[in-house]
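Researcher: Final request for today, and then I'll write up notes for the group meeting. The sequence and the SMILES for zinc ion follow.
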Amino acid sequence: MSIPVTGQTETSRLPVHLKISIVTRVLYALALLASGVLWILLLWRIIFDAQVLPWYSLLAAPAGILVADFCSGLVHWGSDTWGSESMPILGKRLLHPFRVHHVNPADFLDRSFLDTNGDIAFLGPLVLLPALQIPLESPLLVMATIFIAAFSIAGLMTNQIHQWAHMQHAPVLVRWLQRWGIVLSHTAHEKHHRPPYDRNYCITTGWCNRPLQAIQFYRGAEVLITSLTGAQPRTDDHDFAARLRIQGVHCEGRCEFGCRCWQ
Ligand SMILES: [Zn+2]
Ligand SMILES: [Zn+2]
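Model: Predicted protein-zinc ion complex:
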C-alpha cells in the first residue's frame, strides 16, 4: 500500500499528519476544556478542602510527574515498536502519527494546539473524575490526590512538551523549564531521532530515559515479547520508511533531527 504524499519536490512530498475535521476540532476543544476545568477543581480541593496537608505530601507531586514520564515512554515505545498503522482507531490516531513523525519530524511543528493536544485530553476526565471523589481526610489520601493531580497535568501536557522539544526557539518560559530539566529538552529528545532509534522514548520530562537505558528496559521487554509472540520490533516502522523509499521520497538534509527514511 503506498503512502499518500503530496507535491513534487522532496520537501513537499514527505508524508504529513492527517488533517482533522471541524467536528474533531470541536470535540478536541471540549475534551481540553473538560480536562482543564476538572484539573483546576482537583487542585482547588487539595488547597482548600484537604483536612491535613503535611509537607511530605508534596513529594507525591514529583512522583506523579515521574510516573507520567515513564508512561509516556511506555506508550511511545509500544507505538513505535509493535502493531501496524493500518490497525483501526489506534493505528490511525496513535501509530500513524509516530510513523510520520519519524520520517518528517518538522511536520509536528505545523500541527495546531488542538491537533497536538486533543487526543490525550479525552483521557483526562477518566482519571480526574474518580480523583475528585477521593475524601481528603488522611495524609495518605491527600498524597494520592496530589499524585494524581501531578500525574494528570504532566500526562495531559506530554504532546505539547514533545512539540516544544522540537522547536528551535520555544517560548522563553519553556526554554527555562527545558534548561532546568523540568520538561523534555531539545537536546535530550534529539537522541530519540538519531540512530539506532530505539531509546529515549520518554517525552514528558525525560527523567526516566537515562535509568531505563541503563537497565536496557526496552531491549529486555522486546526480547521477552519476541520470544513469546515471534513478533519482531519496529517492523511496521521500517516498512513505512521502506515504502517511502520505493516511492522515491527521500528526506536527507531536510530534517532538523534525524530521519528514518534514508536509513
Ligand atoms: Zn518515536
Ligand atoms: Zn519527536
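Model: The radius of gyration is 20 Å. Residues 22-262 form one domain.
Researcher: Thanks, that's everything.
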